[in-house]
Specification:
Elements (H helix, E strand, L loop, with lengths): L2 H11 L12 E4 L8 E5 L4 H9 L4 E4 L16 H11 L3 E4 L2 H5 L4 H8 L3 E7 L4 E11 H11 L6 E3 L5 E11 L4 H6 L4 E5 L3 H10 L2 E4 L7 H13 L4 E4 L11
Parallel strand pairs: 2-3, 2-11, 3-4, 8-9, 9-10
Antiparallel strand pairs: 1-4, 5-6, 6-8, 7-10
Length: about 250
């Protein structure tokens, strides 16, 4: 079994052609033409994750967020990115990323989030963009839904723009930074919209529209690890697949 056997399988499930033009997916560092025994799946590529990869002696590191988005002019070892690149090369660990192709693919990020929240009769939030989902849920008062969201997605907290005691029946969701789809969710009759990284002025727009938004943060995308781990263990039982235990969220709630 070679590394490329696994990445080819993932490319079929989450085609790179689905990635946005600005994105950088696929092989980031190393070679895929080598034997494979152990994989580590992570949301982000940080120093602590790389240390974990080295300690667990993996051959392939699969991440959601790419380490390298844009061309780089130098690799300085005293920078965080240079430190990571140097050690991945030194320890012969290939880095493979699936970002917006995973977000947009059927069975990817947004389908996984929708399933965890019990959404049904789902459809595309923005049919022109193949991203985000809208769907129905069992009627539930908004305060109870907030508790469910936090528990189901294993979040320390959420932020809300607006608040209500009303029963929620239809929601929209887009993992990651999805504030640009807020207006689609409103037009499609969603009671609330869930996404991450809502900026101040977009929050003001939502408030003025009287539309409730729940900012679940970017780290809610850690469901990536769960999905990829399950698929790889099922398809490649002869390979050891590990889930990173590092909490890569840079935020701390005080």
């Amino acid at each position: 079994m070679n590394r490329i056997d696994v990445t080819k399988f993932l490319d079929e499930l989450y085609p790179r052609s689905l990635a946005y033009d600005w994105d950088n997916v696929g092989l980031q560092i190393g070679t895929l033409n080598k034997p494979l025994q152990r994989i580590l799946v992570t949301l982000d590529v940080t120093k602590e994750v790389v240390k974990e990869a080295i300690d667990t002696r993996v051959d392939l590191l699969i991440s959601h967020h790419p380490l390298i988005f844009h061309p780089i002019s130098n690799i300085a070892f005293d920078t965080p990115r240079g430190w990571i690149i140097r050690r991945l090369i030194k320890h012969d660990i290939a880095l493979f990323s699936m970002h917006t192709n995973f977000d947009r693919a059927t069975g990817g990020m947004n389908d996984a989030l929708a399933e965890k929240l019990g959404m049904r009769n789902t459809s595309l939030l923005d049919p022109d963009d193949d991203i985000g989902r809208i769907g129905e849920i069992d009627p539930i008062p908004f305060p109870e839904l907030l508790v469910k969201i936090k528990n189901t997605l294993e979040l320390d907290h959420v932020r809300t723009i607006g608040y209500t005691e009303k029963v929620i029946k239809k929601i929209g969701i887009s993992g990651g930074s999805g504030e640009r789809h807020l207006y689609h969710a409103k037009r499609q009759g969603c009671d609330i919209y869930l996404t991450g990284d809502i900026t101040y002025h977009t929050a003001l727009d939502a408030q003025e529209m009287g539309f409730i938004v729940v900012d679940i943060g970017h780290y809610a995308e850690k469901v990536f690890k769960e999905v990829v781990l399950k698929i790889l263990k099922r398809e490649f039982p002869e390979i050891e697949v590990l889930e990173s235990q590092v909490n890569t969220s840079p935020y701390r709630i005080i």
